[in-house]
Amino acid sequence: MTQAPARTRTARRRHDREIVALAVPAFGALVAEPLFVMADSAIVGHLGTAQLAGLGIASALLTTAVSVFVFLAYATTAAVSRRVGAGDLQAAIRQGMDGIWLALLLGAAVIAVVLPTAPSLVELFGASETAAPYAVTYLRISSLGIPAMLVVLASTGVLRGLQNTRTPLYVAVAGFIANAVLNVALVYGAGLGIAGSAWGTVIAQCGMAAVYLWVVVRGARRHGASLRPDLAGIRNSAQAGMPLLVRTLSLRAILMIATAVAARLGDADIAAHQIVLSLWSLLAFALDAIAIAGQAIIGRYLGAGDAQGARDACRRMVEWGVAVGVVLGLLVVLSRPAFLPLFTGDSAVKDTALPALVIVAVAQPICGVVYVLDGVLMGAGDGPYLAWAMLLTLAVFTPAALLVPTLGGGLTALWAAMTLMMAMRLVTLWLRTRSGRWIVTGATR
Asked: Which residues span the membrane (predicted)?
């Protein structure tokens, strides 16, 4: 009678160790990424308002362009971890190389689009006459680093699939430090202004990509994996990533609609919305770290043919998601008085943001489960379902959000609609997980 509970406790502790070992470094790497933009903003901000405005527009365009291809990390993690679970490290690294080659091809295509259209893209974002030249300069130079950024995404997916989240953390921290030093040296030391900031970021990104390639190539040689591009493998990587691309675009559309609705509510509402959204994004990093662990762990179990292990790991990660969500929600409630003054001294903005922050706090346990199940299904390679589920969520959220200005409720109602969106995601992901249809064992799905 006592052996079964003891085995259960042992299994839970094993899952806990795996989750912590993967999630904590992943969280550090995720937090390091936005620090690139923060460092650039702090350095360029001292050049002048027009330069900072130009940087803001160009950074928004670059972030959007790169985030669209985040599937390079997600799909690669799932594919590589399956082969790791199956015990075929050579095929795992070969799969990773296909993702890296796809990243290089996509990066070259993005450069070919961005370089000639940079002025039009900046104009589309409504840049002023004084900010536009700086935005175009920064965008054109920084676009040269997009292939490196995409290689970083794909290589990160390879290492996560290999159950290694420490190396991405070290590379991200080193990249942030190099970026900050290069920016100061080129912007002020060399007198290149905003162009120096762009070149500093490009050099740092290329350095990060070079380190990742060195790590992957070394692993490929150790296990006898080919480094040559394989058209069939690259095509398979692209096909696996397409559903996740649809999912990502749908999520971006939701965030854009929310911002557009907030802008229609008034200046205080859009200002408060940006504050609340920034906190929501920060909280997402902590929850996404558990999801990243889920991608790697679930893929490995399924690759090893251990369906029950995948179910048990999923259950334990859901418990982690709920627990972390509750803690984050409490932190939001307790920190509200200290958090808001960091962003604004306007009492109208504070009064608008306060009730919205309460909604964000209450929603965190829901968000915790959503992020975990999202990671579980990604790790299982269940991309097509994730795409359809997110399209359905977009269809539910859009009318709810667009009705906010008409029905009233202001920013509080808008964030209630955002919580409805997360609840919808929870329902679709939970139903899929309960069905067991995501459990497909083997080295490939």
From this structure: 55-80, 100-118, 138-162, 169-191, 197-217, 244-263, 275-299, 320-340, 352-373, 385-407, 413-431
**pLDDT tens digits, one per residue of 265-276:** 887 888 888 788
Buried b (16+ CB within 10 A) or exposed e, 130-168: ebbbbbbbbbbbbbbbbbbbbbbbbbbbbbbbbbbbbbb
Q: What is the model's pLDDT at position 1?
A: 43
Determine contact, residues 41/58, Cβ cutoff 8 Å. no
Question: Contact 143/110 with Cβ under 8 angstroms?
Answer: yes
**How large is the average pLDDT for residues 52-76?**
85
Using the CB atoms, write b or e for 363-392: b if 16+ within 10 Å: bbbbbbbbbbbbbbbbbbbbbebbbbbbee
Long-range CB contact pairs, 432-439, < 8 A, 24+ = 432/373, 432/377, 432/382, 432/385, 432/389, 433/314, 433/373, 433/376, 433/377, 437/382, 437/385, 438/376, 438/377, 438/380, 438/382, 438/385, 439/302, 439/307, 439/310, 439/311, 439/380
Q: How long, in residues, is the chain?
A: 445
145-187 residue pLDDT tens: 999 999 999 999 999 999 999 999 999 999 989 999 999 999 9
As a three-state string, the secondary structure of 327-352 is HHHHHHHHHHHHHHHHCCCCHHHHHH
Closest by CA to 155, choosing from 166, 168, 145, is: 168
Q: What is the pLDDT of residues 110-150, one digit of tens each?
A: 999 999 999 998 888 777 788 889 999 999 999 999 999 99
- Residue ranges in 224-306 assigned as alpha helix (H): 231-265, 267-303
